[in-house]
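The data layer described in this paper is built around a simple, fixed record for each protein. Because each token names a local backbone shape, the row as a whole describes the fold. We quote a single record here, exactly as it is kept in our systems:

***
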Amino acid sequence: MTTPLILTILLCLIVGGAIDTGNVCVVRAAVNINSGKPAMAVSILFAGACASVVFYLNSIMGFLREPAPWSYPTLVTIAGAILFAVGALVNGACAVGTVGRLARGDIGSLATLAGALLVGFVIPRTVIASQTPDLQAMTGATWLEIVLAFTAVLMILSRRELRARRLVSYAIIGVAGAVVTNWQGNWTWLTLIQEIEIGMPLQYAAVACIAAVLVGAAVTAVVKGHFHFIRPDIGTMLREALGGGLMVAGATLIPGGNDALLVYGIPSGSPHAIIGYAVMFAVLLLVLQAQPALSRLTAGAGPGATR
């Protein structure tokens, strides 16, 4: 095991620990906004701003192992973002939220991964290849200034709800996530599934990173008393499998899930990542806003953000 990989695993353990406090699940953030609580969404943006700083420093100091993929959005990008958002709602959590559930004892959430894997094998390889960004661009100071200014304004407006302790966790997620991505590439579990689908060799470093995040989050949950074993429910698992399938399909079309876009795509200034994330979040908000009316029409049907 090489020194960079050891350091990467240590960082992933730290990220896992931070996830317990700094939840970057877009579904939960959208639910909070719908309830008049924007602090979590602003904190997620803060994590992205921290990742942007790391990406910029890596670029000007020559530490980028390779330029980040960069491309313009298309209708396929937008369709993928909508599909991902719907999948996250059906699942009840996004890609990161699923890891958090598993770490807290909800082993039934493994159905999300199973559904993603099964649906992933159905997606034609030509679709995956055609949606891989092939342009490359370095982010500049102008984009970083825009991200920092926008984040600062929202943080000032939400200052009464923000908590320094939580912001530290979000900063850790953004900084460590960006560093690990620079060292290992896009290492999220959605990306790992996509690579398996197209016949790429299994990236053991990415597996180790994902496992380290899960272990770090689980240990933190146990220490804080947040770990509770949840008995798997067949009906819930079927719903989560469907959600996982929709998310992997959406991530393939964008391309990228909400985690990769936050610490990799948006910091690079890629237009496809910015639009994809924005559409994803907008769809979540629109559906949640409409959910009370839908519930009255369907006798309460519709997935929530948490169990």
In short: The first strand starts at residue 69 and ends at 70. The CA atoms of residues 251 and 257 lie 5 Å apart.
